């Protein structure tokens, strides 16, 4: 858990007080960009191999034009005096060395001196150095760090093994002749072993003008973290008004810390956000919360209720084979992520998860017990089921019989619902399978047999209006699957310079029909849902899945042939793949259904035709597209395409188009949020215009809604020692009181922010990659086929 938090002043002074045991950035590291190369031009580097060990125990070599030696007590060296001991070298006009036997050896530097080692270079006038310890006293010192930015002055520096005292000290990470900012203090004391420093009468200056004063500061100078204020965050939103966040960091112990962030919204009120991190023998994790006692926003009507979030993540491995994990997020209301910017969820999430799992793992089997719960944010009024306990057992045994691999999956689950009209149920499931794989250089054949055996013990809801339900339900379904794959190399290349391969695939799947209308309530059945089941979205790769539904409650009959294939083109000079195209479709030999309700049955003769392709037609250009054609309606169901130009890592342009038909939404999601098709076009630009200037711009427009979804613009300006970023966004968000999600329940939230930060020579990032991650539709890397 080696992440350090420092406020603006403490981090600056910490860098200035870089202690002798800390290592500067390696001088052998090559600059990662032009700005870093420019900034390091004025930074001294240590040349030669660094000598390890205690420098004070190494011999001392002295050269000079003349010397007056009074053995064995003292010696005076004059004219181009050069002293070398380990990594440190001292040049001076005159040096007097006094020795007290084996107890002490002092060097008195008279006049100007030049001190250099692998940590710091310093110039000044007059100094006293103990060559057998770390004690020294420097006057009128002008210092600069080695291998990294950082320079300053001190009227007097007194150094011992325990502490360093600097009088009238200054520091800046700006290059020479650049006085953009600096820090001054009357006195600074570094406590070496405890790794912290104290500062009295500190002034922070911008262009030589004092802008901040503190009579006392305390800050870290090593890896140990210290408590204190962090850099604040401020901005303005057309919905929230002006806001200001001031984090406070608490270093509780080396293995745990906490951050408390109060935020004030001028139109909403105060919000408190604590976060606690820990690393113990019982595992590692994070606990966080967000709390607003009263939301004053005029559009929010539930004034009597607090708005809050709880978050917990935890993982631990113990006793070699045991694992425990927790992932818990819960919010006070369904509009929370639409109204607040949170690190623990966003408005595109349709639900929050609350999962716990304890498992025991062995090479051939594992067993676990889990609890699952979902908090949904829609307006359907239905409440999702929670599961506890869910006991899973997996067993694997290869070559149980000749060429046959055996697997077994068993589960026992209990489902409960907060709604008293919904039934509860125990579900016991057993799923043995035998797999016979056969492969050679021509291809592979995989024969699999499987049995789904499930027993339900259901109980009617407690409400008087709850519908009757069959108490005991038994479902046994055998399954047979035959999967054939092969790879064919084209004898004749379709295009010069490229090799082509074909990867056809045919799969036959059979599973008999079993009426499952007695599993769950009629409401669940009408939506195609079970206790933990929902219809899966379809793409090319999902065509070869065994089941259309997630979970175990809805297992549709199958008598179908899936036909598909992929063709790939490779550059015959480099061997890299430059293009692929996949197509597939399911042909139903008989209707696939789970009961007699039409929405749960597939009466058409084939599934949607699924197409997917990637094309890297230039080293800097990449295209990706996918398409589904509904053969029943004879119209497009889904489509998306992305075209990207990527000049280098942070220089890119991406164009996007997304489409989902209203019929597809109704059929597959059992809800219609917009009452029309989804048609979105968008563009993202990220570009390092110069070594110092970076921009990010994005715009997404919904053609069906005839409204912009989100527009963003970010500009960042970087120098060697400071950075400023401007950010503005306009996004479509839902009203906090809308009772139905229609296009009339949306409005625009306009945000503007400015961020200023100081740089200390260890970060030369342009900031473009960070800006690309902003927004409700963040940049996603286009599929790269290399």
UniProtKB/TrEMBL annotation:
Gene Ontology terms: biological process: Gram-negative-bacterium-type cell outer membrane assembly; lipopolysaccharide transport
Chief subcellular location: membrane
Keyword annotations: Cell outer membrane, Membrane, Signal
Signal sequence, start to end: 1-24
GO CC entries: cell outer membrane; transporter complex
Localisation: Cell outer membrane
Every LptD C-terminal domain range: 305-692
Biological function: Together with LptE, is involved in the assembly of lipopolysaccharide (LPS) at the surface of the outer membrane.
PANTHER family: LPS-ASSEMBLY PROTEIN, LPS-ASSEMBLY PROTEIN LPTD
Family, per entry: Belongs to the LptD family.
Assembly and binders: Component of the lipopolysaccharide transport and assembly complex. Interacts with LptE and LptA.
Protein name: LPS-assembly protein LptD
Species this protein is from: Ursidibacter maritimus
């Amino acid at each position: 858990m080696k992440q350090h938090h420092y406020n603006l002043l403490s981090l600056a002074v910490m860098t200035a007080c870089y202690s002798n045991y800390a290592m500067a950035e390696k001088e052998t590291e090559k600059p990662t960009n032009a700005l870093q190369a420019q900034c390091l031009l004025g930074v001294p580097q240590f040349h030669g191999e660094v000598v390890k060990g205690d420098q004070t125990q190494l011999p001392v070599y002295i050269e000079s034009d003349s010397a007056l030696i009074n053995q064995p007590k003292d010696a005076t060296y004059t004219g181009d005096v050069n002293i070398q001991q380990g990594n440190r070298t001292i040049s001076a006009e005159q040096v007097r060395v006094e020795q007290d036997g084996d107890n002490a050896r002092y060097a008195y530097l008279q006049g100007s001196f030049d001190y250099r080692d692998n940590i710091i270079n310093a110039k000044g006038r007059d100094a006293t150095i103990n060559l057998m310890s770390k004690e020294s006293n420097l006057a009128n010192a002008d210092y600069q760090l080695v291998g990294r930015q950082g320079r300053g002055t001190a009227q007097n520096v007194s150094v011992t093994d325990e502490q360093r005292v600097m009088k009238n000290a200054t520091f800046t990470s700006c290059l020479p002749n650049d006085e953009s900012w600096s820090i001054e203090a009357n006195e600074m004391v570094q406590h070496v072993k405890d790794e912290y420093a104290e500062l009295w009468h500190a002034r922070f200056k911008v262009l030589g003008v004092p802008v901040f004063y503190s009579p006392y500061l305390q800050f870290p100078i090593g890896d140990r973290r210290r408590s204190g204020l962090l850099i604040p965050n401020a901005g303005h939103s057309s919905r929230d008004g002006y806001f200001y966040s001031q984090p406070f960091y608490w270093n509780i112990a080396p293995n745990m810390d906490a951050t408390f962030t109060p935020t004030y919204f001028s139109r909403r009120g105060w919000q408190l956000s604590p976060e606690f991190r820990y690393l113990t023998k019982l595992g590692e994790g994070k606990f966080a919360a967000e709390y607003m006692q009263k939301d004053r926003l005029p559009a929010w009507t539930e004034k009597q209720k607090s708005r809050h979030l709880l978050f917990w993540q935890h993982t631990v491995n113990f006793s070699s084979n045991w694992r425990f994990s927790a992932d818990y997020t819960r919010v006070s209301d369904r509009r929370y992520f639409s109204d607040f910017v949170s690190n623990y969820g966003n408005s595109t999430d349709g639900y929050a998860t609350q999962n716990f799992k304890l498992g025991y793992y062995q090479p051939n089997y594992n067993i676990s017990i889990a609890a699952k719960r979902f908090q949904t944010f829609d307006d359907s009024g239905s409440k999702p089921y929670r599961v506890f306990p869910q006991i899973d057992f997996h067993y694997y045994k290869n070559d149980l019989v000749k060429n046959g691999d055996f697997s077994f999956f068993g589960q026992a689950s209990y489902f409960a619902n907060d709604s008293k009209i919904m039934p509860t149920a125990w579900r016991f499931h057993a799923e043995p399978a035998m797999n016979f794989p056969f492969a050679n250089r021509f291809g592979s054949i995989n024969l699999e047999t499987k049995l789904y055996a499930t027993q339900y013990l259901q109980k009617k809801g407690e409400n008087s209006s709850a519908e009757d339900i069959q108490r005991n339900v038994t479902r046994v379904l055998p399954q047979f699957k035959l999967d054939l794959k092969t790879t064919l190399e084209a004898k004749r290349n379709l295009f010069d310079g490229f090799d082509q391969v074909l990867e056809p695939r045919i799969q036959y799947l059979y599973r008999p029909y079993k009426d499952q209308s007695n599993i769950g309530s009629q409401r669940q059945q009408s939506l195609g849902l079970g206790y933990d089941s929902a219809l899966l979205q379809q793409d090319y790769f999902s065509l070869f899945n065994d089941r259309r539904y997630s979970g175990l409650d809805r297992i549709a009959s199958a008598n179908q042939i899936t036909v598909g294939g992929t063709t790939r083109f490779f550059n015959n000079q480099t061997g890299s793949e430059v293009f692929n195209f996949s197509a597939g479709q399911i042909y139903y030999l008989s209707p696939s259904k789970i009961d007699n309700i039409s929405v749960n049955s597939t009466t058409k003769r084939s599934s949607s035709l699924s197409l997917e392709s990637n094309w890297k037609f230039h080293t800097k250009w990449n295209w990706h597209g996918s398409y589904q054609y509904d053969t029943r309606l004879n119209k497009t169901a889904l489509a998306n395409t992305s075209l990207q130009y990527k000049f280098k890592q942070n220089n890119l342009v991406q164009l996007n188009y997304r489409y989902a038909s209203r019929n597809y939404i109704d059929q597959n999601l059992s809800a219609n949020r917009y009452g029309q098709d989804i048609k979105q076009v968008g563009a993202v630009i990220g570009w390092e215009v110069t070594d110092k200037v970076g921009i990010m711009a994005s715009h997404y427009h919904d053609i069906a809604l005839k409204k912009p979804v989100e527009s963003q613009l970010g500009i960042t300006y970087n120098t060697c020692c400071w950075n400023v970023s401007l950010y503005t966004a306009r996004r479509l968000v839902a009203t906090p009181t809308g009772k139905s999600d229609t296009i009339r329940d949306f409005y625009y939230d306009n945000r503007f922010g400015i961020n200023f930060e100081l740089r200390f020579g260890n970060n030369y990032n342009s900031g473009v990659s960070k800006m690309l991650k902003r927004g409700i539709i963040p940049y996603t890397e286009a599929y790269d086929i290399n």
